[in-house]
Amino acid sequence: MASELAEKRVVHTDGAVTSPAPQHEAGEALVYADPRPSWPVTGIFFILFFGALYLAASFVLPVVIALLFALVLSPVVRFFRRRLKIWEPITAGLLVIGAMLTLVFGFYMLSDPITQIVNDAPRYVEAVDKEIRTVRDKITRLEGARHTAAQAVSEGEPPPGGGAEAAQGQGQNGENPQEVVIGNADLFSNATTVVPQVIASVGFALVFLFFLLASGDLFYQKLVRAMPTLSDKKRALHIAHDIERELSRYLFTITIINMGLGVAIGTSMWLCGLPTPIIFGALATLLNYIPYLGAVVGMSIVGVISLTLFGSLGDALVPVAFYLACTTMEGQFVTPAVVGRRLEMNAAAIFLAVAFWGWIWGVVGMFLAVPLMVAVKVFATYTQPLGAFGDFISVEKPRDEED
Fold this sequence. Notes:
Number of helices: 14
Radius of gyration: 31 Å
Strand content: under 5%
Helix content: over 70%
């Protein structure tokens, strides 16, 4: 016999009242589904998501690059439309053509110095191999002298006078130095395979960037229509505008800082007597987009080339010291003062992000790691479930600021 259930209203924490609960038969069990996703489902989702990013890198990377540049250049397109009444496709076309001409001009200016460095690669490898053999021979002689002294002490006899000569002879009778051969044929074949792919990816990114910029505010209009409630519409617009503003400000300021660092390092390399200092300046500008690892790679390249030119380890360390001093001044004083505390992030989180995206997307992923972190940090400030993650990637605020 069916019994009538009392009509109930469900009142939520936000004050909303739902419709009366439906009536059920007596004794019927009511099962409520938990709307929150379980941890295993979330873990499987992220595994599949990052696996897809890894497998589809050749397609996803140009799309991500175009989206980042669209966020940076959208304020420019919007300014010309509102102030000068210029149609969005015209401004977008001029910006894309300017970016393409910049890439072509930069490649043309740096092609000859890069070709010279590539042709001198066997000399650099030979110089490094010679220095490694020298250090290895010293270690071998030291080990031989220690072994001779230990043997003499164990036998109760004084070390013979010929111990040093015997150790030297042992070092000379060791393995013969291996001949270093650079596979130019393999290098050329790899270049002929990679260069067309790079050109195609750059062309795809530029075309997609044009369509994104030419669409104007279409993205924001679609975003507003997709949100169900008015509060969601406002929050989505705040997130989009904040990501656009913070990302464009970060990339603009960090580009100016990196260009200044490139000029300082190029000048330092010229004072140290290194050839083609423009190469070192451009290399420092690009590598400084990769935190921590970029400076290490730049100092390694400068050290190898200096060792080849000067032939002495002590002289080769002078340009490396100049490089280290410039990057230290930039990282410890200039960037924190210009960028400000709003965009400062946890050093450990930056290092992990650079390593992770480098593992997923290679060198290009290292360049995109920090801009992606800026976007995620802004998004996390508006999303309650990601609040802990946003706090993790941020720097610790001083107590006076918290108070």
